[in-house]
Structure prediction request, 135 residues.
Amino acid sequence: MKSILVTSLIGGVVLLLLSSCATVPTEPLGPDELRLLDIQIPGAGRIKAGALYTINVRYETGGQPKIQRICYSLGGYEPKCSRATGIELGWVGTFQMDIGGNDIGPQPLEIYVEYIREGKIRRTNVVSTTVEVLR
Prediction:
């Protein structure tokens, strides 16, 4: 019984590691390509319902892409997008954005960015985490 539990636990950890790495591509970036790396939420990932919270999104670039819109979805709802203003990208760094939600409990948060590359609007990879929305 104990060996079955240990085997199941190890299998679960391996699956978690594989799935968490699957959202961030590892191939080299092209010119002016933008890749999101992760989301950092102050306060251990807990936000209060009805309030806006500033979060950090880490990225890397292959040049100087121009961000058009930053989009997020909280709780599986349609993405909310806003125009990107005042964001100057370096090769690697962090930009900030505000999020807010009203549904109480753990909520999946997904973020992506629309940017211009080679004269066309492109979409980055999606980074995600879970946010605890409190009363």
